[in-house]
Amino acid sequence: MTDRRSFLAGALAASLSPRIGWADAGSPAFLSAAQEKNGNQMLVGLDAQGAERFRLPLPQRGHAAAAHPIRPEATAFARRPGTFALVIDCREGRVTAVLDAPEGRHFYGHGAYSADGRYMYTPENDYDAARGVIGVWDTEAGYLRVGEFDSHGIGPHDIKLMPDGKSFVIANGGIETHPDSGRAKLNIPFMEPNLAYLGAEGTLLETVAPPAEWHMNSIRHLALGPGGTVAFAMQWEGPEAEAPPLLGLHRRGAAPVWLDAPGAEHAAMQGYAGSVAISQDGAEAAISSPRGGRVHVFDIAGARFAGAIEARDVCGLAPAAGGGFVATTGTGDVLGLQGLRPVWTARHGRAFDNHLVTVGAA
Amino acid sequence: MIRRSVLALALALGAAPLAAAPADIAEAVIDRHVLPGFARFEAAAADLQAAAEADCDPGSDPLRAAWGAAFDAWLGVSHLRLGPTETDNRAFALAFWPDPRGMTPKALAGLIAEADPVVESQAGFATVSVAARGFYALEYLLYDPQFTPPTPYGCALIRAETRDIHALAAAILADWQDGYADLMRQPGPEAPYKDEREVLKALFTALHEGLQVDVDLRLGRPLGTFERPRPTRAESWRSGRSLHNVTVTLTALRDLAMLMAAEDPASAAALSADFDRADRLAADLDDPVFAGVATPQGRLRVEILQQAIHEIAEETRASLGPALGVAAGFNSRDGD
To answer: Residue A28's closest CA among A42, A43, A16?
Structure first.
């Protein structure tokens, strides 16, 4: 049966297919969900200067995406309380798998791949039990659900793989919601957010919680720096006048560091950080507030506020190659931020949704 | 006909972003909606405290009536979740609902089982979990068979609850009168509200979120899903007030909406028609505790009311918000 032609074809496939990578999808630097002017929802690939590399339709409003570490493959999550996620071949522009949340569950709009790209991990709400769950999916079996474990908190929103490739950090926002009640928050006076570190099998390694008086500070989004620094962005559910810091930094085994801008500049964030990023060199962390229309940048080593950059409806944030950050806005701008100011702008006729995801990073 | 088209043109122009001073709208909302609403609430809470002092029997008609009147007055301002209601968790202490984990009856049973002396002082009772305080806790004590048999401790607990509600109402009113109203009247670069738009935005948010509470919680929770309706998740079903609460909040929200739409005749007309429709549906529903959600037909009627209130919320967002210049951005509107 093995004639020369099919042997060759097989050999070619074997040698070529592992090399299919993000370069085959136009080498996007970032992914973002976006809404077009006509109301259509898209997953957009952007280059390092914010220009479009591809756009692929989504059936409903997206939230965040996860980029496969090797293959040009992205999982696009519907906005909370979405019950499905689409795996998209970004080279061919087609949906190759659909993740359906199990009965009684919904996704939170985020997910993470394992370092080798074999597994996808999805924060989920087991809503009748008000229990946070992390679903495990085998990407090499067509994204078959192969397991799950407890997130060790309510409302697990974001998840990142730690640099050791074996453990995770999870932002348990602490807020109970139930799809019967839309997006209404059901337990604000009793919420208990935490940052939970879990081993690969779901064993709890460490948790970090805000001090008791800040228990209404929902830990929602995560960024990883070189060396395992975790930056976490928070959304304050208490009285606006009392808004505590919205950025936390943590390293395993150490006490968390809480950072905010002085006085009125902090108040201008309106108690809300939408995204967080750490610069490539690990020197700076940034949080965005679409409500306050600003990005706050912090010096990590000095644990101090470095400065603010104003941008209307800004939310998506990612590290820029070579330093600084890239931000996206609901008004259609992609902004290169360096030295505490925008140094370039790419304008799109679309509204970028909450998060800008780096391709080729956890 | 010419007159009519001139009128139509004037109405159409009225829909454009208004030039009228936003300060006037804020002033009207504060003076005619916020301050009188909290003053009525304080007075009704004082009556409730007096009624409990006079007769603490859970079956007492005057006590139950005073509880109902104070609850109505609270619902008339419960959407104004800014400043004074947020200090020290006051709004949650007055109204801890929904209670998906059943914390209120557990917390009350705990106080009763220990005959916790915390009921003896107002300061002591203020340290009790918000789940055991406020109108919903008092509803259990007045209407739930687990709690209604009269006992000396139950009497002390009811009195502590009403004293606490009145103290909270008085503190909120005082904060509004002695500072927060002026903060909203006098925005400035160094003040909590930077300019008049921020003031309007806060009031607009209160209106929109108030409508959303009716849609998502008061109606959404008992509706559950078609496969699994949840009638016992209805708000205040023990006292038979579930639909009544929706009606009372709609009245208050209409009052606020009309003041905010005062300079925008097109939005005012559309909102007025939307509120009329929701009121009519509520009046015709004839299902005081939404028990009907368990049947397909009854469910449909509750869903129609929910949809009607949803449309009011959408109307505020689509026309009133932009007309007031407080339309939120794609990300800032409802972030995650």
So the answer is: A43
pLDDT of residue A44: 96
Asked if A107 and A66 touch (Cβ cutoff 8 Å), the reply is no
Report the CATH number at residue B44. 1.20.1420.20
CA–CA gap between residue B151 and residue B138 (Å, rounded): 15
Q: Do B32 and B164 sit in the same domain of this protein?
A: yes
User: Has residue B231 been placed in a domain?
Assistant: yes
Q: Rounded to whole angstroms, what are the CA distances from A164 to A25, A199, A282?
A: 28, 10, 17
Ordered domains of chain A (ranges, CATH): 25-358 (2.130.10.10)
Which one of A63, A180, A246, A291 would you mutate to disrupt binding with B, by most B Cβ within 10 Å of its Cβ?
A: A180
- The span from the CA of A69 to the CA of A73, in Å, is 9
Which single residue is written with the structure tokens 């603010």? A308
Query: Residue B320 in 3-state DSSP?
Result: helix
Sign of the torsion formed by the C-alpha atoms of A346, A329, A120 and A73 = negative
Single-letter code of the amino acid located at A216 = M
| A257-259 vs A275-278, strand pairing mode | unpaired
- B171 and B199 together in one domain: no
Domain boundary among B126, B159, B186: B186
Partner-chain contact A330 B331, CB within 8 Å: yes
Cα distances from A216 to residues A114, A323, B21, B120, in angstroms, run 31, 33, 36, 30
Q: Which of A161-165, A314-318, B2-6 has the lowest mean pLDDT?
A: B2-6
Residue B165 to residues A92, B63, B116, B159, Cα–Cα distance (Å):
63, 14, 19, 10
Number of structural domains (chain B) is: 2
Residue type, A153: G
Looking at the fold, whether B29 and B61 belong to one and the same domain comes out as yes
* B218 secondary structure, DSSP code: I
* pLDDT attached to residue B20: 53
Task: Give the model confidence (pLDDT) of A152-194 as tens digits.
Answer: 999 999 999 999 999 999 999 999 999 999 889 999 999 999 9
Asked whether residue B153 is assigned to any structural domain, the reply reads: yes
We report the CATH number of the domain holding residue B239 as 1.20.120
Residue range A40-46: mean pLDDT, rounded: 96
Q: B331 to chain A: which residues are within 8 Å by CB?
A: 274, 290, 313-315, 329-330, 351-354
> Which member of B86, B224, B335 has the closest CB to residue A274?
B335
Taking the CA of residue A354 and the nearest CA in chain B, the distance in Å comes to: 6
Pair B205, B123 in one domain? no
Query: Which string of DSSP letters, residue by residue, matches B116-146?
Result: -GGGG-HHHHTTS-GGGSHHHHHHHHHH-TT
Q: Say whether pLDDT at B92 is over 80.
A: yes
Note whether A181 contacts B329, CB cutoff 8 Å.
Answer: no
The shortest CB-CB distance from B100 to any of A130, A331, A351 is to A130
CA quadruple A225, A229, A234, A239: dihedral sign: negative
- Check residue B11 and give its pLDDT: 42
Secondary structure (3-state) at A229: coil
Q: Do the chains contact at B335 and A354, CB–CB below 8 Å?
A: yes
Nearest CA in chain B to A332: B330
How far, in whole angstroms, is CA B275 from its chain's centroid? 16
B62/chain A closest Cα distance in angstroms? 32
**Containing domain of residue B69, as a range?**
20-186
Helices B35-54 and B152-175, interaxial angle, to 10°? Answer: 160
pLDDT classification of A280: cutoffs 50, 70, 90? very high
Q: How far apart are CA A350 and CA A338, in angstroms?
A: 24
Neighbours of A27 (CB within 10 A): 15
Euclidean distance between CA atoms A216 and A189, whole angstroms:
7
Instruction: Supply A338's token pair.
Output: 């360096």
